[in-house]
Amino acid sequence: MPCLNLSTNVSLDGVDTSAILSEASKTVARLIGKPEAYVMIVLKGSAPMSFGGTEQPAAYGELVSIGGLNADVNKKLSAAVAAILETKLSVPKSRFFLKFYDTKGSNFGWNGSTF
Length: 115
Fold this sequence. Notes:
GO terms for molecular function: phenylpyruvate tautomerase activity. By secondary structure, the protein is α/β, with parallel strands linked by helices. The chain is built from two helices and six strands; from the N terminus they run βαββαβββ.
């Protein structure tokens, strides 16, 4: 169950968040090699955030997955998510961090149990 949690200081008012969620979901599923039915995307806007001492557009993300992550996949995911944020929210790629967590199924709760 890959979960991409994104926070940005950009306001999402008037933004087509459905397009961002859809593109991110498809991208994560494709690059990790998991069915999109198990991918979750969380997008939070207007988060108080400073990066490099300024409050210019920035974003932070965390991606958790049960397998499917490695150095090559992480690099591709970082580039793809950064491109989505730059295109859809005008967050420069240089003002975005993405942290990756590869975890065990027993560390993920779902459907009243664990994986």
